[in-house]
């Protein structure tokens, strides 16, 4: 009777209800963010900005470069804003979604190339701000159990990547696949701004290589749809912000941090600067290889299957690409479940060495259509969870702050730009076979980095061990807990 009569039991039950509700609500919203990020990145796989303004591919490549520059600048800006103004993270996320929504929706109405380039640059800012703010939110919500939720969250990217071209496709000008025509993917541009001839629909190009302005596409509708979706999710984060400001102080926001403290790498490793720098450098290289290899494979797979000894037609090449993304999406969902029974370190080893085995098999069986289908799907299966799994793994050794995610984003951007350029150069001058060689070499390098990361991290130990639990470091988290001690919060996390 004593246990049930005391008011503290009711208080704990209320905290469980409120904490769990907010945690799962924010995870669902963060998954929508992942889908939206994929829409922003993969929307242009099914369409091309050259349908918006009459220009050649060299000019359009400048527009795409402006977006990449926006990703870099946005990562730096987001890393500062989210760590400096932690209590306002919801409203910053809402502002980034508003920026993304407006720039996406306005793009189809641009008639000047420089205006389109400016919009794409701002779009890159919005994309980077979403990534920089969303990932630390999940790390705080789930702490040492974040590996599964990270994989579940990032599976939304696969859904978005698969849905983006499907949303665009009905609104494009009609093409005649039987005659070998196919719409150009701006991300497939070579380093000199030209494009392989089999990508472009000859009926849509003028004699000087520019697109016919009389195109019958109506791509403004899917762009508008994605823009409205961004605004709806932005309104949700405004609601989170307003609700928190009116509710009792169950969650007390951390104080804004000085710039010197924000930029100090030791902050994410309990004051150990050497360990922090080692981990951040390894994470940078890891994501440079993961994202660079992933984007390279996704963008050149269609090209390779048509130009190589496989000799796929456009329809079969499209299905091959779809099979890759289906396997990619399913793997992240399965990894989210597997994280409940396997340690995150074991998962990363399985994923990295599984991807290496698949890449080697791709190289060996590059001219066998059936084997290539199987190996390509296997590569997507093993490579897909590598991005979110490392975030969950890193969260066990260092604090995943917005500055940490900034390092992830910059590594991803550098890897995406350099590896796609390198693969395009080798593809152009040394033939299609160089593509599968690059995939195999980068997969081997990734396995080496994974081994080094584990060796470095084991010397330090996990920060969630009983002797080193981050209860004392909660002041540097996104949100502080007050009124309830750490023991109760830990039990809530496993409720």
TrEMBL record:
Coiled-coil parts of chain: none
Domain of life: Eukaryota
Keyword tags: Membrane, Transmembrane, Transmembrane helix
Stored PANTHER family: SODIUM-DEPENDENT GLUCOSE TRANSPORTER 1 (PTHR23121)
Spans traversing the lipid bilayer: 64-82, 91-109, 221-243, 269-289, 319-339, 346-365, 371-391, 403-423, 435-457
Pfam family, one: MFS_1
Keyword Lyase appears in the UniProt entry: no
Source organism phylogeny: Eukaryota, Metazoa, Spiralia, Lophotrochozoa, Annelida
Protein name: Sodium-dependent glucose transporter 1
InterPro entries linked to this entry: MFS (IPR011701), MFS_trans_sf (IPR036259)
GO MF, any single term: transmembrane transporter activity
Key word RNA-binding present: no
